[in-house]
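Task: fold both queries, return tokens.
Query 1:
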Amino acid sequence: MTRARRRSSRRNASTRRAGGIGVGALALLLLVAWVMIGPDHDADLPFGPSAPTRTASAAPAPSASAPASPGSADPSTAAGGLAALEVKGRAPRTGYDRDLFGWRDDTDRNGCDTRNDVLRRDLTDVELKPGTGGCVVLAGTLEESAYSGQEVAFDRDEDNSLDIDHVVALSDAWQSGASGWDEDTLRAFANDPRNLLAVEDSLNRSKGDGDAATWLPPDSSRRCDYVARQITVKSDYGLWVKPAEKDAMQRVLATCEGFPAFTDDAGWPAPRPAAS
């Protein structure tokens, strides 16, 4: 080999060593910088067999249920009572007969039928029919209707302007669990003082056998009391509410947050002698 070729060969070898050292040094510098600065967690990770699989961050799991509104779990409130009621669809009306309920029966054995018990309880200035043991109401005044807030004069012989309304209608009860009751329970329900109100006959008839989803008192200020009474009656007799009925009740109770559960369990007034 000539001297010129040996010098050229040495220069090429030196160049290759210098190039190799340069690449290695650059890689080392990048590694040191990466360790000192720390990995960028938002950057893409390197690809390769040993690279961890990149997955999207999981979104926070939603809570199991929305926070309950104040009072919704408190049994002393109407909303708490409603939350505890079973929710089911309307059962068939098959077999329903109003007479099965024994409405007007003297279940408290005070000698008076239930209709006259309600009138004596709800009216003022009551005039009683002589010779009926202080039971039969001839006239009186409903000072504030539970549904309209209006004063209503009652005269049995003139206009008979009042009906006795079942707050939870008998047909509605039948389709909400009452179809399986025995005779005594049917009679107790139909004549329960808590489920009976003297109201205008026109309002009672417009309500029919509707629940809260289809009928509410025209005086909106009376609706919370009306719904609270229905909830207590349904709860005490193990009746359920339909989905639309529950929604309607919740809308009413949202206007009177914390409204107390209905607890009035007063019985009927005792008969008294008619005025002479």
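Query 1 returned. Query 2:
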Amino acid sequence: MQAAVLEKLRAIVGAPHVLTGVDLSPYVVEGRTPEAAVFPGSVDEVRAVVTLAGESELPVITWGGGTAAAVGMPAPRAGLVLGLRRLDRVVEHEPGDLTVIVEAGRTFAALQATLRERGQWLSLDPPDDARATIGGVLATNASGPRRQLYGTARDLLIGLTVITADGALVRGGGKVVKNVAGYDLPKLFVGSYGTLGVIVEVTVRLRPRPDDERLVAVPFERLKDAGAAVRALMASDLIPNAVEVLDADALRALGIGAAPAALLTGFDGVPEQVAWQIAELPRVVAAAGEPRALSSETWPRLARAAADAFSASVVMRLSVLPTQVAEVMEQGRARARDRGLSSAWTAHAGVGVVTAALSLDGGRQDVAAVAEIVRAWREIARAFAGFAVLDAAPLAVKEAVGVWDDAGGAGRIMRRIKEELDPKNVLNPGRFVGNI
């Protein structure tokens, strides 16, 4: 980085908030060290930094908590890390309207703690919420088991403030839930991985905290049986907030037994309603025994159960129809087993999102063998008219297989949008679908 650009960055945000040299070690991704990391303290400072980066044609890698920093391909040039940890204020909370306006750098756990004081919550449960920021959750469209009932970030977003690649401040949406004027611009940025703009402030709708919430596990001898239980559950009158299927390795990672498979189901609401649904669950899913109550500490570990089964793993996310989840899991496990490798599987079974982790333990890091299995998993998803994304893997595997699945016609539209909003390709270049 040119010394003149570095001095301008220090002038914008203050010298203590510009990191260089060895201080950049926490921001090294895929072996690439950024040229500097800068931490603005206001929206105006973010605008100034992005404007300067655009003028200098310096790539900008937006950084919230770093929980998804390795998703996607790294930029060809490391460029500038733009950290948002100083933008962490709750701007406005209207309990009566069930809305909150919050800066993008506030961690998800800190936001939930603030809302809890007023008996409310943002009904998302992304992994690693102590590090994940609200801006990062929206940029990656992250969610967890409770998406079964409450949906994803797209469903909860009301308004958004974004800094575009040319430093323009763009506001979309509004401050209230009943806001239907104009195009739904905010949702364009949800799940864009920072390639279209820097999210600096969000408005989301809230819910009252439920009086009671419980998570129970029903074991099964086969994944196929757990899949049949999911279909029965979804056809019933029960209203679960989570419907998870786990295989044996994932269950061991959670420390909740050694069954070949299990259905984990969550319920929330008034205590009487929750108790009735749990009592009905064994009959609905044809369980051989009573559901096992799980600790509330299990909730935040559910989303990472597959990855946590091994000390090192390749993680792939497959999206298929909910009715196909169990068969996809069985076929995927068989492909890995045929090559002598261990895998762990979980699924948000009610919405058809499957997570697979392939063990790299014991020095098994043959890129060709790993890539063969990951390709096979992607082909399984495609055979069921779905798709698959490589969430975590060594760079050599990413290069051999590709992180993102083919987006088809949608990919061409996405590229056109990228070219319009970021013509110099400054924001997270090459990270997203089709090297956007």
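Both queries returned. Flag for query 2: The two ends are 23 Å apart (CA to CA).
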